Amino acid sequence: MPTVKTPDARHPPWPAVILAGGLSRRMGHAKSGLSLGGKTMLSRIIDRLRPQVASIAINLNGAAEQKTIVGHPVIADTVPGFLGPLAGVLTAMRHTAAITPAATHVLVVPTDTPFFPHDLAQRLTDAMTQREQIAVALSDDALHPLFALWPVALADDLEHWITTDPKRRVRAFIERHPSVTVDFPMTTTASGLFDPFFNVNTPDDLLRAEEWLRILGENSA
Ligand SMILES: Nc1nc2c(ncn2[C@@H]2O[C@H](COP(=O)(O)OP(=O)(O)OP(=O)(O)O)[C@@H](O)[C@H]2O)c(=O)[nH]1
Ligand SMILES: [Mg+2]
C-alpha cells in the first residue's frame, strides 16, 4: 500500500490570513475590491501569497453573508468594534488554532500592499531561531508588523492587550515577546529604488501603484 505523507503543520508552509478587516477611511472604498492593473487588489495578494503558504483565509468585517471568496474562508474579527490591525492578527491566531491546531505560527499580510516579496514566508521562517518568536519584516528601517509570522500561542495575551492597552500599540506588544526582524532589500528599478512594502491607503497611492506596476513590469491582468 502506498504511504500517504501527512504534512506536519508545525512547520512551513504555514497557514496564512489576509488582513482586510479595516474601514478604508482614507480610500473611501474597501481596498480589497480596488482594481489595480485590471485585477482586484485582493486577487493580487492571493496570487502572490498562494505559492508561499499552506492555506489562505481572508479576514473581512461586515460580510457575514459571504462564507468564502474564491474558495478561501472569510473570517470576521473575533472581538467587535474595529479595534485595529491587531484585532485582525488575533482573528488569524484564533482561526489557525481552530482549523490547523498543530500550526505554531500564522503568516499575516495586509490586503493593501500588492508588491510584497515573493520570498516573504521563506525568509521570515529562516530567521526564526526559537519556537515562540514573532518574525517581522523590515524595509528601509521601517518595521512592518502586519507582514509577520505570529505565534498562535500568543492569542490570549494579544486579546488582553487589545482590550486593555488604550492605544493597542503594535510595536509595544511585539516588544513584550521574543522577536526577530528580517530586512528586505529595496527593489532597484529604472525609476529608482522601490520599497516592496509600499501600501495603498489613498486614491493618490492607487495612482502611484499603477505607475509602479508598469515600472516593475508586473502583469497587468
Ligand atoms: N481585522 C481588522 N483589520 C484591520 C482593522 N483596522 C485596520 N485593519 C487592517 O490593517 C491593515 C492596515 O490598516 P490601514 O492601512 O490603516 O487600513 P484601514 O484601517 O483599512 O484604512 P484607514 O481607515 O484609511 O486607516 C489593513 O489590511 C486593514 O484591513 C480592524 O479594526 N480589524
Ligand atoms: Mg495601510
From TrEMBL:
Database matches in CDD domains: MobA
A Pfam family that the UniProt record links to this protein: NTP_transf_3
Cofactors (names): Mg(2+)
List of residues binding Mg(2+): 112
Protein name: Molybdenum cofactor guanylyltransferase
Record carries keyword Cytoplasm: yes
GO MF assignments: GTP binding; metal ion binding; molybdenum cofactor guanylyltransferase activity
Catalysed reactions, semicolon-separated: Mo-molybdopterin + GTP + H(+) = Mo-molybdopterin guanine dinucleotide + diphosphate
Role noted for this protein: Transfers a GMP moiety from GTP to Mo-molybdopterin (Mo-MPT) cofactor (Moco or molybdenum cofactor) to form Mo-molybdopterin guanine dinucleotide (Mo-MGD) cofactor.
GO biological process terms on file: bis(molybdopterin guanine dinucleotide)molybdenum biosynthetic process
The entry's keywords: Cytoplasm, GTP-binding, Magnesium, Metal-binding, Molybdenum cofactor biosynthesis, Nucleotide-binding, Nucleotidyltransferase, Transferase
Binding site for GTP: 19-21, 31, 59, 77, 112
Subunit structure: Monomer.
Location in the cell: Cytoplasm
Gene name for this UniProt entry: mobA
Protein family according to the UniProt entry: Belongs to the MobA family.
Gene Ontology CC annotations of this record: cytoplasm
EC number(s) reported in the record: 2.7.7.77
